[in-house]
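**Protein of interest**
===
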Amino acid sequence: MSTPESSRPVSSAAFTPTGSIAASTDRKRVVFATVVGTTVEWYDFFVYASAAGLVFGQLFFEPAGPQFATILSFLTVGISFLFRPLGAFIAGHLGDKHGRRLVLMLTLILMGVATALVGLLPTYAAIGIAAPILLILLRILQGISAGGEWGGAVLMAVEHAPTARRGLFGVAPQIGVPLGLLLASGTMALMALIAPGDAFLAWGWRVPFLLSIVLILIGYYVRRRVEESPVFVEIAERKEQTRTPIVQLFRKHALLVVLAALIFAGNNAVGYMTTGGYIQNYATNPDGPIALDRGPVLWAVAGSAVTWLVATWFAGWLSDRIGRRSTYIAGWVLQLVGVFLLFPLVNAGTVWTVFAGVAVLTIGLGFTYGPQAAYYAELFPASIRFSGVSISYAIGAILGGAFAPTIAAALVQATGSTFSVTLYLAGMTVIGLIATLLLRDRSRIPLGPDHEAQQAASPIVGSRA
C-alpha cells in the first residue's frame, strides 16, 4: 500500500517561520516562556487536586460523612473538566481569529485569580453551605482556564519549531504538567512539614494557593515578551482567518476530534491517579489499608513527577526520530505495565514502594504525553488548528481524567479491592492504543497556510481523503 501524501516526510524547509522569530534566540525564548507559563497553570490546577485529596473533604464537605465527603471532594476535581470544553471553544475561537498569544495571557490571569481566591475561601464551619458552592465556582473557573491554556501553549511551541524538531519543541508545554505536579506536591509537602497536623488543616494548606499570586506575575512577565506564532502571523497578513473555525472543525473533522480525544483520555485517566489526588488520599487515609503520613507520600508523588518529566522529554525527542505514532504505541505498552504494577507496589505499604509504583507508572505516562503536542498540531489544518487541538484535548480530559479519582474511589468502595481500579485503568489504556492505531503518522507535514489542502486530508486509516 502506498504511503499517503500527508504522512510522507517533507523537507524541514517546507515551512519556514516568517519574521525575526525564526532566530534561534527567539525560539529559545518561546520554549522558556511556554514551560514557565504551563508550569504555573498546572501548579494551580494540581495544588487544588492535592488539597482535594488531603483536606477539602474535612473542611468543606464534613457533614456528608468521611467516605462520602471524600467522593464529593473528588467530584469537585472532576466538575472542572466539564467546563474545559467551554474554555476550549472560547479559546479556540479567539486563538484562530485573534492569535495564540492573547489567549495565553488571558488564561494565565484567570487561573491565577481563581487559585488565589481558593486560598482565601472560608470553610464550611465558617459560612456553611456557601463554602462548597464558592469552592465549586472557583474550580469551574480553573476548568475554563485549563481548557483554553493547553492549545495555545502547544501551538506557540510547535509552530515556532524547526520541522525536524517539532517533537522536542512540543515537549515544552508537556513538561509543564510534571513540573506543575512537582511544584504543587513539593509545596504541599513543605507546608505539611512547617505546619503539621491541625495547623495544616487550619492554615497550612492555604499557603500554596496564595503563592499562586507570585507565580502568575512571573508567568505574565515571561509570556508578554514572546511574539505571536509565525503561522498565525502569516494567516493574519493574508486575512485568511476562518470566520467560524469551530463550525468548520466539526463539519469536516468530527471523527478526527473523537479519535484524538480518545488518545488523550487513555493517558489522562491513568495520570489522574496522582495528579487528581487519588493515590495521595488512598495512601494517607487513616482508616485505609496503608495509613501513611501525609508528608512522605507527598514527597513520593513529587519524586514521581521527576521521572514523569524525564520520560516526557525523552518521548518528545524520540518522536522526532521514529515518528509520533510509533512512540505512542511503545508508550501504551509501557503504560499498561505500569497500571498492573501500581497497586501491588502501593499496597506493600511503605513510602518507598508508593514511590516505586507511581514512578513506574509515569514512564508510560511520559511516552503517551511527550509526543502529544506535535501529534495534535500535525492532525489539523492551520486555519482551525487552535480549535482542533483545544477541543480534542478538552473532550479527552472529560472522558479520561475528569472523574477518574471519583470512579477509583467508588470502585474500591463497591468491590473492596484495588484490582477493579487496575482493570478500569487498563481498559482506558487499551482504548488509547486502539485510537492511535486508527490514525496515520503525520510527522513533518508542513504546518503553514500554504499547505492547507495537504493538512486537510484525513489522517484516519482507511479514509479516502
Summary: The chain has a mean pLDDT of 86. The chain has 21 helices and no strands. The CA atoms of residues 379 and 459 lie 7 Å apart.
